[in-house]
Write a structure and sequence with these properties.
The structure is a homodimer.
Chain A: E1 18-28, E2 33-39, E3 49-50, E4 52-55, H1 62-74, E5 80-87, E6 98-106, E7 122-126, H2 137-154, E8 165-167, H3 168-179, H4 185-194, E9 198-205, E10 213-218, H5 220-225, H6 237-240
Parallel strand pairs in A: 1-6
Antiparallel strand pairs in A: 1-2, 1-4, 2-3, 2-7, 5-6, 8-10, 9-10
Chain A binds a DNA duplex through α4.
DNA sequence: TCAAAAGTGTTATGAGTACACCCATGG
DNA sequence: CCATGGGTGTACTCATAACACTTTTGA
């Protein structure tokens, strides 16, 4: 069987490769940070866990490919998605040389409705208990964790992991999970509220306490306008990052 | 002429692509920040300016390819080189679909000895006066500038652009060029020296003043140890970045 | 009534910033 | 001796960080 990609080469003498995208998909269930993984349907390593990925199609951009892969798995559109890095070690895929462009995604776990274990055998894993992964996927996950910590220290991206309504204590638990530490709740809420990015709601969430915690919503206009600002959510970022 | 990359496909039905690396090479001549560009030797757009690039070889990693391209052009090894982003628009190269992984490099312009205009028709351009570039290279340059500003606000990478011995005023001119602004020299030198990354030398540089400015060298051990620290060289980073 | 989480206020310390003068020296 | 760039010191402001008590209410 010959390469279906064969064609007249216009830059002669160069070798052609497969290109894939792989998605590191983060979620937050209110308590723990999780990663969405799938059981690989292709040989080799069939049945082992891997990141959700797919091959770049002939007329598709990288971003389009990553969004397609994500939509196929979760049914979600408009998800926060960011290119992480290209992984190009010649022997990273033992089957055939494949360059992979890794993307990381942040999704509101509650919007993810499709049955997990059907078509793609997908499952959420605690970020701290990731199973053995194929190929160089462990390195991709490590880099994504690092990048998430880095970026979240400077930009308000973690809201992407929360539902539309959330409480300050929920937000704090999320940040504490990301940085694997604890914050002073008084300083945390003051800092968060001082950004003026949150709009207080009338209702309370009584799921976690008798007193109840006020819901907040993101001010989406301010969020977009201030996205590039350095918010410094994190005390001592130099000690926590990397 | 058929695809020289044809071979038995082990992931059948997928299309294969060319993969290239392109380097955005920054230099600093003591006054201005510059970019190293080459005149393209291949059709199309032959004779037009472009970033230095090359195709990924069959048994080569991306980092190796970028280093090879850089070495071929400058003769330098061990240069600061960082993957920027993969560019994968299907029509970015009109000749044939080619994914390009962009790298940005910081080099000490004085160590760059090879004749510029020989084999590769390379030339330094003022960053503020970049000629028309081919393909999506303008977008790559813009992203590299942005990334350089971003990263330099948080990490001491700009030392990579300076010779082994440099003065504080030189360093300040460099930072001012990167951020296209001016800094208070008293605050700047205090901030820089407070990092404890610089070792004062006995000699002075008298090229720019009668009094002369003391040379400093980087403390390379501390530099490596503190590379990930947030140094906050830049006042009001949120106003300056992006 | 009490346990458990939510919410709030004060103070001390350090970093950032604005600002002005003296120093050294080649011409 | 003076013009030029190099180098330093101080005071103010604001953000950060440490710290403890009151509020609410379902069980």
């Amino acid at each position: 069987m010959y390469d279906s990609g064969s064609k007249i080469t216009r830059y002669p003498g160069q070798s052609h490769l497969l290109v894939a995208v792989d998605c590191i998909i983060f979620g937050f269930d209110g308590t723990n940070i999780k990663l969405l993984l799938v059981q690989r349907g292709l040989k080799p390593e069939k049945g082992k866990w891997s990141l959700m990925g797919g091959f770049l199609q002939a007329r598709e951009s990288l971003d389009d490919a990553a969004n397609r892969v994500l939509r196929k798995l979760t049914g979600l559109e408009g998800v926060y998605l960011e290119q992480l890095q290209a992984f190009g070690d010649p022997s990273r895929d033992p089957v055939e040389r494949t360059l992979s462009v890794a993307y990381f995604a942040l999704i509101d776990i509650h919007q993810y409705e499709k049955q997990l274990s059907n078509e793609y055998h997908a499952e959420w894993f605690l970020l701290k208990k990731i199973p053995e992964l194929i190929f160089d996927h462990p390195a991709m996950v490590e880099l994504a964790k690092k990048q998430l910590r880095y970026k979240a220290a400077l930009h308000p991206i973690l809201f992407e992991l929360l539902p539309a309504r959330f409480t300050i204590p929920q937000l704090q638990i999320l940040y504490e999970g990301i940085y694997d530490t604890t914050f002073d709740n008084r300083n945390f809420s003051r800092k968060v509220l001082s950004t003026d990015l949150l709009i207080k709601q009338k209702e309370k969430d009584k799921a976690n306490s008798k007193k109840g915690a006020f819901y907040y919503k993101l001010d989406k206009r301010k969020y977009k306008a201030n996205f590039q600002a350095f918010l410094n959510f994190i005390p001592n970022p130099d000690k926590l990052l990397m």
